[in-house]
Structure formats: structure tokens, C-alpha cells
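Hi C.,

You asked whether I'd gotten around to modeling the 453-residue construct. I have! Everything is below, sequence then structure, no commentary in between.
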Amino acid sequence: MSVLQWFVDLGASVMLPILLFIFGIILGTKPGKAFKAGLTVGIGFVGLNLVIGLLTSSLGPAAKAMVDHFGFKLGTIDVGWPAAAAISYGTALGSLAIPLGIGINVVLLITGLTRTLDVDIWDYWHCAFTGSLVYALTGNFALGLYTIAVHLIVIFFLGDLIAKDISKFYGFRNITFPHGASAPSYLVAKPLNWVFDRIPGFNKLEANPETIQKRIGIFGDSTVMGVLIGIIIGILAGYNVKEVLQLAVQTGAVMMLMPRMVSLLMEGLSPISEAASEFVRKRMPGRDLYIGMDSALSVGHPAVLSASLIIVPITLFLAVILPGNKVLPFGDLATIPFLVCLMTPVFRGNIIRTVVAGTIYMAIGLLIASWAAPLITHSALAAKFDMGGNTSISALVDGAVWTTFIFVGLAKVISWLGITIIGAVAVGGLVYMNKIKPRRAAKLENSNSAKMG
């Protein structure tokens, strides 16, 4: 267990290169090529984290200044996903998420119930998070572990479900994002998009980055949009001219640098993805595998970043006016792109739709994060996490994600049965997508061939 904890503590930027190197060798990639691919991905993650760090260090103080400027008072602090991950992996229960996840993924792959080969095992902390909250609520270790297992099945189901839209919108071939914070928003975006399509006038609005740039020229450029949004946030924060300009350039820099870091990640992933496709083609004809990766690959898209930066001040405004909210958004403001990045493909890059849907999502999420705050605080104390003098903490990632509410809520109301219901739905979805649907398609194809013959 101590060896596993040591490996987890290496973080995604070190874990992923090691895992990708191992997977590359297993898939038949030459050692030198596999090593360089893994290293490139690791460097890409370092670069991405530096850019996110820049966004955090610029948006964090601006958010605090905005709160102070308008005299907002909220009793629970959003400590951010790094703290939530540390809390999740800080207990014996949470540290079991990785071996459990690997085992379940292997079983589902062998039985053909999933197409997702998930190498992003560090992000199993999202499942450890819900398991830890259920344990904090019930005091039942076995139920907490069962929750982790079922949540893992859910994210493999979501990985299979979203893969085609990811390929179509982002252009990532055979890659998916079974990410506990990002993937759930896809299921919210689908019905919202159906509603948006039926609102007269609204359904005609085209607001993807390319359309915006055509209509308003340089002001539609994603980097310039980042600068303008930075200026607005700086003014709302009560900054002086110097501070506003500095924030503007920093947000513009994020808009320019984030896509380049994602390109570096894709450069490293391409050889592994190609090797996986070839491996499956030879050994499992008729099957496609998706490489499960961190949704960080998608957050560099201009539509995602533009919408996310607009949602930041909206989220702060919602936190103040929303009845029942107790959470002051802070640590996870810079990670809002991770919460909306899988909404954007559903809306085909439409920034207006993403902002509207993201606003609805964050409003509900703030209430969930407020509801979960006592359990998150309890879990933090159990993991001996330094709360920095705060008596109540929460996090938008994953405290504001609807799956947290469903898992913990059902565990509270009907215990084992509630978690089992979620698992049954996820397994049913996997069976339909990977067993029933392909058989129906094959049967239809054979029928059509027979008619043509």
C-alpha cells in the first residue's frame, strides 16, 4: 500500500509517462519511441499545469478582490481540486481506487463491455472522492469501497458514450475522456441542447469562435477575447489600471498558450494511440479501443476557454445571489473549463449555448457543493488535511458535480440499494452500447446485403 501511495503521490505528470511507456511496450511500440511519447506527454502536462497555475494565480486574487470589493460574505471556502484530490487519496479507502479501477477496467475490456482503455488512472481520485463522502456519511467502509467500484463503472460507460462526439468536435481519433469531473456535464448538455434547438431566435444564434471572428474581426480572436475578459474581471475586482492591464495580458496568455500545450500532449499520445489501434486490429478484429485520457486535452479549445472565462464572474455573482449557497468560489475558478469542456462538443462550439448551459450547471453545482460541504470537511479532517484555519470547506471539482449528489444522496436514502441501482444502469448502458447495439447493426447490415443480393 505504501508503494502504491508513493506512486500516486508522483502526480499525473510523472505517473502518465510511466504508464504510457508500459502500455506502449505492451502494444508493440519500440522502446525508444514509447519512452519519447511518454516523456512528451509528461512535459505537456507540466506545461499545461504551468498555464493553469498562471490562470489560478491571476484569477484567484482577482476573485478575492471582487468579493472584498462588493463586500460578499460566505462561510465555506472552495479549496480547489488539488486539495480535493489530496483528501480523496489521503485515506486507506481512497488509495484503493487505483488498483480497483485497473482491475475493473481489465475485466470490462476482456468481456467486451467497454471500449475504453483508461490510462488516466491518477484521475480515479474522482471516484475516491465520492467513496470517501459516502464513508464519511455512513461510517461503512465496505459501502464506501462499493461506491468507488460503481463510480468507476459509470466513468467507463461515459467514456464509451462520449467518444464519438469527442472525435467529431476535437478531432482526437480513438481518444476519450472518462473524467469524473468533466464527463457528467455531457449528460446535462444533451437535453439542454434539445431545448435550445426549440427556442425561436436563440436556436439561430451562431457563436463559435470562427463565426465570431468573421463578424467582429480581431476582437473575435480567442487571445484578444481573453484580454477583453481579463479587463472586465479586473474592473469588477476594483483593480487599478496597472493591475487591470496585467490581468488582461495574463488571461490573453492563457488563451494562446493552453492550445499549444494541448498540441504537445497530442504529439506524445499519437504513437500510443496508433499502436493501440494496430494492436486491436490484429488481435480483436471488428473492435475499436478508445484511449482514456485526462480531459485537459480539451480545455485548450478556444470555445471552451472563452466560455469558461465568461462563466467565472457569473459564478461569483451566482454565489452571492443564490438562496441556499454557502460556498465562496475560489480555488476551482481556474478549473471551470474542466466542468464545461464536454458540454462544448454537444453545442458544436457555440459559446453562447455553452455559457448559458454552464451558468445553469454552476448554479445547481453551487447548491450541491454547499450541501456536500460538511461531508467534505469531515473527510478532510479524517485525512489530516490542513484546512488553513477554515472551519468549513468544499470544492467545485468534484463537490459541484451532479454525480456527487446522486451517489451520496442515494447512499444516504437507501444505502446499498441506491448504489446498486446506479451500477445496474451503468452496466445496462455498457451492455446496450457494446453488445446489443453492434449485434443489431450487424443484423441490419446482413439483412440489407441479402436484399441487395
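If it helps when you're writing up: The chain has one domain: 2-448.

Thanks,
B.
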